[in-house]
Amino acid sequence: MSNTYFQFKEFIVHQNKAALKVCTDACCLGALIAPKAAQAQNILDLGCGTGLLSLMLAQFNQAIITGIDIHQPSVEQATQNFSLSKWSNRLQALQADVNNYTGAVKFDWIITNPPFFENVLRSQTTEEQLAKHLEADGWQVWIDAIARNLLSTGKVALLIPFTATEKVRAAFEKAAFYTEEVIYLYHQANRPAFRSILTFNRISSNFEAPQHFIIKEPDQQYTTAFQDTMRAFYLHL
C-alpha cells in the first residue's frame, strides 16, 4: 500500500482522499515553474488535486494562490494540506468545474496538470476517470478556462503527455496564445520522452527550441539536473 502522505522539505502532502497521488512528473512541473512565477501576485491551480503545485509555488513567492477541483474529496485534501503549511493564509481550495469557473480576479500565472490519457483505456474508478481523462473537446474546455481567467500579460504552464504536444500547441496558438517554452521529460536518456511541460503567454513568442529534462541516469540514480531542480523540495536531496 502506498503512503498516505508525501513529506517535502517545507511542507507535507496528505493524499489518501485525492483522486491522483503525488507523482514525479507533477513535481517536475512545480519545481521547474516555481522560480519563474516568483514575482506572481495571483496564481490559479486548475485541477489542484492534493494542492501539490500550489504548495510548491507558494514556497517561492508571496502570491495569493487559488486551487480549484471538481472532486470534493480532493478539495478537502488540498484544504487540509494548505492549512498545515506555513502559507495557509494565502492558499485556498475551492470545488469548481473548469467548464464555468471564473475567478474574482484575473491571474498572472495559471498552472495545471490537466486530465489526459485521451482515447486510451479508461481508469477503473470514477475519481480516476475524472482526474485522468479528457473527452473529445476537453482540451478546448481547459483553454477556454485559461483564456477567461488569465491576465493579458499572464502566463500559463501545463503538463501533458508528450504525444499530445503538437496538438495542444496548435490549439493554444489558435486561441491567440504564443508558445514560450517547451520542456520534454524523460525517465532516462535512452528512453523516449513521456511528458511535456508547455508555457504560453498572450504577448509574443520567445520560443526557440525544446529543452530536454532527464530524470534518471541508466544506473537509476537521479541526474544532476534533476537533483539541482528538486533540491529545494525533496527531503533527501
Secondary-structure blueprint of this entry?
Blueprint: E1 5-7, E2 12-14, H1 24-33, E3 42-46, H2 52-58, E4 64-69, H3 72-83, E5 91-95, E6 107-112, H4 126-132, H5 138-149, E7 150-161, H6 165-174, E8 178-188, E9 193-201, E10 211-216, H7 224-230
Parallel strand pairs: 3-4, 3-6, 4-5, 6-7, 8-10
Antiparallel strand pairs: 1-2, 7-9, 8-9
What does this structure look like?
The chain has helices at 24-33, 52-58, 72-83, 126-132, 138-149, 165-174, 224-230; strands spanning 5-7, 12-14, 42-46, 64-69, 91-95, 107-112, 150-161, 178-188, 193-201, 211-216. It has 237 residues and is of the alpha/beta class. It has one domain (5-230): Vaccinia Virus protein VP39 (Rossmann fold), CATH 3.40.50. The strands form 2 sheets. Strands 5-4-3-6-7-9-8-10 form an 8-stranded mixed β-sheet. α1 (24-33) runs parallel beside α2. The chain starts with a strand and ends in a 7-residue tail after the last helix. Mean pLDDT is 90; it is low at 117-136.
Shape: globular
Given as residue ranges, the uncertain stretches (5+ residues, pLDDT < 50) are 117-136
Q: What is the CATH C level class, in words?
A: Alpha Beta
Terminal CA distance reads 24 Å
Brief overview:
With 237 residues, the protein is an alpha/beta fold. The chain contains 7 helices and 10 strands. It has a single domain (5-230), classed as Rossmann fold (3-Layer(aba) Sandwich), CATH 3.40.50.
